[in-house]
Amino acid sequence: MKVTTDWLLSIEALQDVPAPQLQWFIDNSDNIILKQGDFFMEPGQAMDATYIVVEGSLRMYMLQNKEIREFVSFSPKDIMGYLPFSRGKIANAYGEVMMDTQLLSFPATKIPEMIRTHFELTRALVHILTNRVRNFTALQQQNEKMMALGKLSAGLAHELNNPASAIVRGAYSLKKHLQSVRKTLQDIIDIKISREDVEIVNNLIWRLLNEKEKPTLSMMERSDMEDDMVEWLDDHNITNAQDIAENFVDFGVSTEEIEEFLQHIPEQYVDSVINWVNNNLVTEKMVQDIEGASRRIADLVGSVKNFTHMDQGHDKQYADIHDGIKNSLVMLLYKIHKGSIELKKDFDKTLPPVKAMIGELNQVWTNLLDNALDAMEPAGKGILELKTRRDKEFVEVSIIDNGPGIPDNIRSQIFDPFFTTKPIGKGTGLGLDVVTRIVKQHRGSIKVNSVPGRTEFIVCFPIDG
């Protein structure tokens, strides 16, 4: 197809460009024919031309975790490639031809002349550039949010899975256990003892269930106590001695306390009563496990609500800065456990509530914590330090890791949009840019000090917003 000025004027972005300027553009361009499957661009290749798609179809994509992620496609009358005043001179994606394509290729070496002599043409192409930057930024920001959401969702699912599974197991075991209680209940009903003795036995059981603190035992201490308990139970002809001994040791029941039972129970009923007491302890243990797992789920849900600041306004509010940091840690707890990270906290508990947009600040803590954990990941272990302190009318939060540090030659770039040292698929280069914008919203500052083995990000903003 022959490209004419009339055809170029049919492109919305070029409709206000004078025809002579468009003819100059055509005269200085080359027609390129590409076949389906060809690549007109690859990562690391210099962007040395402005292209207008005349016929055909192309797409741009990146590889993330060895999978293709397409982010833009081009069809006839689309303009792409290097544009005036663009800072991006090296391609970071693949450009693949989806069907036989004709391109009008304008060399980048001619752009300085175009800027000097063809104002309207330059302005039109710059307008395309600004739209492209805006659209790409929006895409990358959305990608950053989805990646962050994916990480948090994976961590939350992992944290919720354990207590949820514990509840299911506990409920099933409790149901089976209650079904097995029938025989013990029959034995208890057959017992004939005085009301006074019943009251004494009942009080002893109540004390075991509610008043005793469970002992903290080493494996050796536990094993010795269980052996002694089994021996005592066998001496008194108690059935299920091994199971009973394990549960009694769990609850801190001593042989002396069992002896108290014997003083109020006829000898022929001792086995039935001891097994009945054991059944009560087992039931209590199962209920405690289910309660603990349920509380863990409730705490996680509460942390998510606080993290996102649900049910509250988006204006600045007074809140304890430490609550947001703790909630952010909950969101990344799976990563801390996975990496065998030692967590050290040095919080100034005298800090007053700070006036801030809590949900936004939680993004700051999460991004900085996530970066610190990523930095320590290759070593498989590390130390994460969190510090808060007051500096006159400002609050200062430090997040410190003992990773390899940030090289001097890139330290000045880490807050730039789209700059990242992470592999493709692990970062978009917008995490620290988001952090910077949120901190500036709070009239604060962020700085970094880094040497091998210690990287410290310091966030500082006024207490009263």
Could you explain the architecture of this structure?
The protein is an alpha+beta fold and 465 residues long. Helix content is 49%, strand content 20%. The protein has 14 helices and 13 strands. It has helices at residues 5-9, 19-27, 111-117, 119-179, 181-189, 195-210, 219-235, 241-250, 255-262, 270-308, 321-331, 333-338, 358-376, 431-441, and strands at residues 30-34, 39-41, 49-64, 67-74, 79-81, 94-107, 317-319, 341-346, 354-356, 382-391, 394-401, 445-451, 454-462. Strands 1, 2, 3, 4, 5 and 6 form a 6-stranded antiparallel sheet that branches. A 5-stranded mixed sheet has the order 8-10-11-13-12. It has a two-stranded antiparallel sheet with strand order 7-9. The protein starts with a helix and ends with a strand. The model is unreliable at 423-430 (pLDDT under 50).
What is the 3D shape?
elongated
Structural class: alpha+beta
In whole angstroms, the N-to-C terminal distance is 62 Å
Q: Per DSSP, what share of the residues sits in E-state strands of 2 or more residues?
A: 15-25%
Total strands: the figure is 13
Helical residues, percent: 40-55%
C-alpha-based Rg, rounded: 35 Å
Mean pLDDT: 81
SSE string, helix = H, strand = E?
HHEEEEEEHHHHHHHHEHHEEHEEHEE
Biggest sheet architecture? 6 strands, antiparallel
Low-confidence stretches: 423-430
